[in-house]
Structures are given as structure tokens and as C-alpha cells.
Design brief:
heterodimer; A: 88 residues; mainly alpha; Non-ribosomal Peptide Synthetase Peptidyl Carrier Protein, Chain A; B: 414 residues; alpha/beta; Aspartate Aminotransferase, domain 1; Aspartate Aminotransferase, domain 2; 2 domains; four-stranded mixed beta sheet; 44% helix; globular
């Protein structure tokens, strides 16, 4: 789980923070409600997770709420991985 | 039926918007649009004459006598309304003439009018793209583009604002898609910066992608002859789709268009739902817009004056010690960072006779609240000097002159 969180955090930092943005991203940092990731841009994070972990995150589960912190995203990925994985 | 419970639910939601400080209230303007306007705000308050620094009337043509006269002639010659969508019985000769004139002005292959640029953006993606394609947009594109992309079945992606390295990564990632489209604003409405269209076009050519630009805050005045961002960046003829508006510099009434490659414009004529299912642009607006194109194609005087006004205003505000977003467009954002401070400064400026609006999250990113000032060719030096005087007074009151982001945030919070 910690590895998973680290992967997600690293992706968020690389994909969403501008150069010179010194905000730190912790497991509980609010991403969408905190204005770091907007709902328009979060689709690349979803696609990254689907590709990396060979899963499909149903659109109805990829909500701004479920994607609001690294912890919640990791929980969602874990839940889907424990279920029947579907190759995207 | 609108039961008491349902009413209460909406009232509660509206209270929530108000408590969050996000309730929008219109100000009643009792004059034509211009450098100075007469405003009643709040409703019932005495009418006040103020300098307008927040309209998109970039070329000062919204109330230009020749445009008004041409619109009036159009009203007499072609009537008030068409009571039809374009493809049934809503296309007059002047609609097609305006499309041809826009094509010529923008240096494209063909043009299709829409009721607004919001409608053009809402319709264009769905009309030209399908599930096998991908749209790659700058993260700061206008809300109407975001909505248009959401209505389209093509895959979506975004790149960091104006970051060509990030865009290149995305283009590489999406090489397996059928069609790639890079999407950007020409001039970004909240920041006033100009897209790097030259670099973007070079990348698009390298990675076989189309480029779509919303040039609403550029058409008529950006570039040496005001053709837009593509002229400014030296890529006329290499942009595949331009969407733009008649509702800003080009007379400011309403109407927009999709202009670009002939086949893409034709796809919009066949498939774009806001084109197919909403009324034609009223003849009076078409006639006014034709006159606007006559005026701006015959001389660059107005865009030159706007450029000079922008230089003077930017130099003036910077000289007073305001923290400005860098840029070369007539959108000059004064950075205040804190949402309440932006609203307080705007309110005090209004009391001093200057009409501006504070913008804050979610319109702009959290902690980047600002007052967006916008210049016009209608402004005379006396308007700008009076505006600078008011800014100096209010800036001193809040102790923000000569202060940067760090110091403002330390005093007022982010």
C-alpha cells in the first residue's frame, strides 16, 4: 500500500505541480478540493493508474471525491485490484 | 410541481453559494458600452459615472456610430429575426458574406457562424472527433472548451499551462490514437498571456496533430494587423481550427464562429448541434459585424491605440508598485492573491469611480485572486490617468504597493 501511495504521489507531483511550486503532497493532502488537481485534468491520473496496474476504474467510481487524496486513490486502486481485474 | 420542499432545497443551495461569497450580482448599466458608463449598483443606489476597465470592448467598437448605423440599415433591409435555424430558412446572403469576410480576415479556408463562441466550442469537438481520437488541452483553456470536450466521445488529456515539454510528452503518449488535436486559447482570458502557437504548431507537425485555438480574446487586435494570435506568432495558415467571437472586439454584440480547414468546417455544418438546433445569428448583428470588418481591415489605427494604451497602463501600474502578471495583451491582471482582498479593492475602486471586478477561486486557482483590468481603444489618456490615480489611492490604503506575493500573503493570507 505504501508503495502504491508513493507511486501515486510521485505521479501527482510530476503531472500536476508547476515548476517552482514547492507544495508538498502528503497522503491526506486534498488534491481536488485543495485546487491542486482539477476535475478536468484528473483523467490523466485515472489513465495512468489503469495502465500501470492493468485495471479499469469505472467512471462512476472515478469521482472527484474518490480522487481527492493519495490515500483515497490508493484505497480505490486496491479495492479494484482485489476484485476481478479487467484489462483495459 | 414546485413543492415547498423542492423550493427549500434550492433556497438552501443558493444560501450556500452566498455564504461562500460566490453569489454573482449583476450591475445595471444605464448607458451604451464605452470607456465611461453609467452604473446603478447596488440596485436602487444613485447612478454613478465610472471608468470601465473590465469590458471586452477591446477596439471600442461596441457603440461606434458607424457600426450602429450599419446595424440599423441591416435591421431595415433584412428584418429583425429569421425565425429559423440556418439550414431550414435562416441563411441570408449577408450571413454567407460575413463568413467569407471572416475567412479572409483570419486567413483560413472556410468559416461557419454560430450563435456564440460558447456554442462554437460546445459543438466543434463532437462534430469532428470520435472515440478513436484524443483531445489534448492546455489546463487553462476557457470553460466553454472544457464543456465542449465533455460533450465529445474522444479521449481527453491536458498539459500544464503553456508547457511545451509536457505537451510533447502527451503527444508521444497518444501516438496510437487516430487523430490528435492540441487545444489552446490564443490569449488566456484570466492571465492575459499569449499562447506559444509557433512552438505548438511545430510540435503538432512533428507528431501529426491538428491545432485548435480559441482566439476570442485576440481576434481584431493581436498581431500586426489584428488577425489574431496566429499572426502574432507567425503561423497564419497553419492553424487547423480557430474558434472566435463577435462578442468582444468585433462589435461586442454576440455571435461566434468556427473557421479553419474546409472539411472540418463542413463537418460542423453537418453535425454541430448548437449550429443545427439553435437560431441563426440575427441579421442586425451580421450587418454590424460586416461594418466592423470594414473598419478594422482598412486601418490598424484602433489596435495600435489599444497597444499604446496597454503599454501606458501596464507601465503606470508597475510604476505604482502593483504586482502584475507579465504579458503583452490588453488583459492586465493585478495580483492580490487573497480572495477577500480582491473583492475589497474592487469595491473601493468603484467608490473612486473605477469599475473593475475581483476574480478568485474557482474562476482562477486557489491563492491567485486578482483584479483583471482590460484596456480598450476607447480609453483616452485622461481615463487611464484617473484610473491610475484611483489604483494608487486604494493600493496605498491596503499597503500593497511595492509588495510581492510573499508579503501580500503574509499580511492577508492566501
Amino acid at each position: 500500500m505504501d508503495d502504491l501511495k508513493a507511486v501515486i504521489r510521485d505521479y501527482v507531483v510530476k503531472e500536476y505541480l508547476e515548476e517552482g511550486d514547492d507544495r508538498t503532497i502528503e497522503a491526506e493532502t486534498p488534491l481536488i478540493s485543495g485546487g491542486i488537481v482539477d476535475s478536468f485534468s484528473m483523467v490523466s491520473l485515472k489513465r495512468f493508474l489503469e495502465k500501470k496496474y492493468q485495471i479499469r476504474i469505472p467512471d462512476e467510481q472515478a469521482t472527484p471525491d474518490a480522487f481527492d487524496t493519495v490515500s483515497r486513490i490508493a484505497e480505490l486502486v486496491e479495492r479494484i485490484r482485489k476484485g476481478a481485474p479487467v484489462t483495459p | 410541481m414546485f413543492s415547498a420542499g423542492v423550493r427549500e432545497r434550492y433556497q438552501q443551495e443558493l444560501r450556500g453559494i452566498e455564504e461562500a461569497g460566490l453569489l454573482k450580482r449583476e450591475r445595471l448599466i444605464q448607458s451604451p458600452q464605452g470607456a465611461e458608463i453609467r452604473v446603478e449598483f447596488p440596485p436602487g443606489a444613485p447612478v454613478k459615472q465610472v471608468i470601465n476597465l473590465c469590458s471586452n470592448n477591446y477596439l471600442g467598437l461596441s457603440s461606434h456610430p458607424e457600426v450602429v448605423a450599419a446595424a440599423r440599415e441591416g435591421l431595415d433591409a433584412r428584418g429583425y429575426g429569421m425565425s429559423s435555424v440556418r439550414f431550414i430558412c435562416g441563411t441570408q446572403d449577408i450571413h454567407r458574406r460575413l463568413e467569407e469576410r471572416l475567412t479572409e480576415f483570419l486567413g483560413t479556408e472556410d468559416t461557419l457562424l454560430f450563435p456564440s463562441c460558447m456554442d462554437a466550442n460546445a459543438g466543434v469537438f463532437e462534430a469532428i472527433l470520435g472515440e478513436a481520437d484524443v483531445m489534448i488541452a492546455d489546463r487553462l483553456v476557457h470553460a466553454s472548451i472544457v464543456d465542449g470536450m465533455r460533450l465529445c466521445r474522444a479521449q481527453q488529456d491536458t498539459f500544464k499551462h503553456s508547457d511545451m515539454g509536457h505537451l510533447e510528452e502527451k503527444l508521444q503518449e497518444h501516438q496510437d490514437k487516430r487523430v490528435r488535436v492540441v487545444i489552446t486559447d490564443g490569449v488566456f482570458s484570466m492571465d492575459g498571456d499569449v499562447a506559444k502557437l509557433d512552438e505548438m504548431v511545430a510540435l503538432a507537425e512533428r507528431y501529426d496533430a491538428m491545432v485548435l485555438v480559441d482566439d476570442s480574446h485576440a481576434t481584431g487586435f493581436i498581431g500586426r494587423t489584428g488577425r489574431g494570435t496566429h499572426e502574432h506568432r507567425g503561423v497564419v495558415g497553419r492553424i487547423d481550427v480557430i474558434t472566435t467571437t463577435l462578442g468582444k472586439a468585433l462589435g461586442g454584440a454576440s455571435g461566434g464562429c468556427v473557421s479553419g480547414r474546409r472539411e472540418l468546417v463542413e463537418m460542423c455544418r453537418q453535425r454541430a448541434r448548437p449550429y443545427l438546433f439553435s437560431n441563426t445569428v440575427p441579421p442586425v448583428i451580421v450587418a454590424g459585424a460586416l461594418k466592423v470588418l470594414d473598419l478594422i481591415a482598412s486601418t490598424t489605427e484602433r489596435r495600435d491605440k489599444l497597444e499604446e494604451n496597454t503599454r501606458y497602463w501596464r507601465r503606470g501600474l508597475a510604476g505604482l508598485g502593483f504586482d502584475l502578471k507579465e504579458g503583452e495583451s490588453p488583459i492586465v491582471p493585478v495580483m492580490l492573491y487573497n480572495a477577500k482582498l480582491a473583492q475589497d479593492v474592487a469595491r473601493d475602486l468603484y467608490a473612486e469611480g473605477v469599475y473593475v471586478v475581483g476574480f478568485f477561486f474557482p474562476v482562477v486557482a486557489k491563492g491567485l485572486a486578482r483584479i483583471r483590468t482590460q484596456l480598450s481603444a476607447a480609453h483616452e489618456r485622461q481615463h487611464l490617468d484617473a484610473g491610475l490615480q484611483a489604483f494608487a489611492k486604494v493600493g496605498a490604503k491596503y499597503g500593497i504597493l511595492g509588495k510581492g506575493r510573499k508579503e501580500i500573503v503574509e499580511t492577508y493570507g492566501a
